[in-house]
Amino acid sequence: MNPEHQKLLKINDAAAKRLAKLNLCTPWDMVLHLPLRYEDETHIMPIADAPVGTPCQVEGEVVHQEIQFKPRKQLVAQIRDGSGGVLHLRFIHFYPGHQKQLAAGKRIRAVGEIKHGFYGDEMIHPKIRDAESSSLAESLTPVYPTVNGLNQPTLRRIVQAALDSIPLHDTLPNELLGRLKLPHLAESLRLLHAPPPSFTVRQLSDGTLPAWQRLKFDELLAQQLSMRLARQKRISGQAGPLRGTGEWSHKLLAALPFALTAAQQRVLAEIRTDMQQPHPMHRLLQGDVGSGKTIVAALSALTAVEAGCQVAVMAPTEILAEQHYAKFKQWFEPLGLSVAWLSGSQRKKAKEANKAAISDGLTQIAVGTHALFQDDVEFQNLGLVIVDEQHRFGVAQRLALKNKGQDVHQLMMSATPIPRTLAMSFFADLDVSVIDELPPNRTPIKTRLVNSARRAEVEGLVLGACKKGQQAYWVCPLIEESETLQLQTATETLQTLQTALPELNIGLVHGRMKPAEKAAVMAEFISGRLNVLVATTVIEVGVDVPNASLMVIEHAERMGLAQLHQLRGRVGRGAAASSCVLLFAEPLSDLAKARLKVIYEHTDGFEIARQDLTIRGPGEFLGARQSGVPMLRFANLEEDLQLLEQARETAALLIEERPDIVEAHLNRWLSSREGYLGV
Fold this sequence. Notes:
single chain, alpha/beta, Rossmann fold, about 40% helix, NA-bd_OB-fold, DNA binding
């Protein structure tokens, strides 16, 4: 917090540091730091009528006080009021000041939750006030989210200072507020920070309260305005139009053993139309697992190459990047095109040779991981960037690649379908293409939920599938805390399966292996020399082995829905009927039960994504911690769809007619976050 703000709010450096832990750095941040809950200190409840388990305020005379030493040292006082009720007040941590405050004969007020104790009704660590020297509160008392060393009275004082010191004038005109039936901002904020006693705690926690609706609308409007402006900025940017001759695209299509589906053809046409514009494309290509996004990306890349430009193809993991490299090489080298591979673990000599070929323009297509971001990788004429599983990259990384060729066309691919509400909000600056049909040769996958106590039966299923000439994956549980533990589990699983199924050839891939080792095991599996592949979740995206018809996932209850759906999509790519077995261990949490129910009942990625959003919220769904997307603090996309629609319409109107309002609104709501916009 800068010194000027500290002076305004009358806070010292130590308090400013603690506020920074809550991401509170300006008076406006303090104003938006809304209470978690409220305590009602506006009236007194007779002890005899006070409810158990609900916070309340009672008043009475201290009739007894003692320090007890069993089972541990504690201060216990008894109070009695006019209703004849007696209440015990218990303090496990106490100071001499407490003893003084609770001296026999004193009249005090206690605020807390009553519980049934061993000696009768009691409050543990209640808030104590002298009844004679303090008056009753005139509004409900807010309880704010806080950190160690910042108590509630201090926070209340700072929030009040912020409310009194910064202008809370409305950025939105009265005519608009009247039409949307929304209250003024200052009125809404003051109500939520200090609600009059006529409001119940339940009313205040209800998102449909007009004051909450106003804050949610302002937040959604700021997001819509920033997305629309980012889009306008992009459209006004300069990028070379890329018109392909069709020379190589036609050759590749003729060589493919399959024809494109109608959905693939439609999406490819949308991408090519965008690439012909004089401004940069920002298109998100969505398709469920196995819908054939890679060939669409390859044909888009050929359009850029035909137009004389280079293409960068980037994936979040080495195994996926390697898969893309193998596919692109298989498709492009017969056409006489050069495809280079760049990864962090590559040997120095090979890496240097590839970098030189990229900067000299000898290589038309570069495929890789984050190694494509390094400052010393230079393209001669980068025209198109293809980012696979784009939500798994941080914004800074995406910017770094985008800046390699100044303004370049971007095609982002995702097998995690984005529900409509997210497409309208967080991805409103992107054009979205959806491949909404699977290739005709895909076989439906049967999903089974099996308790891990029946593991031997599942091993029998694996043996049966392999005896028919098919192959199987066995995925080990994800252990995020420790890669070493992950490796140990995978190795143990391999040994257990080798003991149980000695007649099968079983291989292992895990995250700690060198790329060359991993590639060798994958090659063995693809060629059919291995019957079973034991793997950590490195195989979740992009691995394509048509002969694999059985997927076993251990400890499925530990995994997210998107991950389970991705893993399940690794089978069902050939002619054989495929199954996915989800092994789970009890007891199951409510969250795990909800996830397993969704994955068992649905195979449509969009429906799974929609349910996932409901279960987890957009922050988790988007991987907010690393994506840098300004998360919504007040609005809930599923609940506030109507407000989102209104914010979209209002944003378009304001940009066209009232740029002054747009600027004022964005300054207030997004001043510290504009670096992320337009990515």
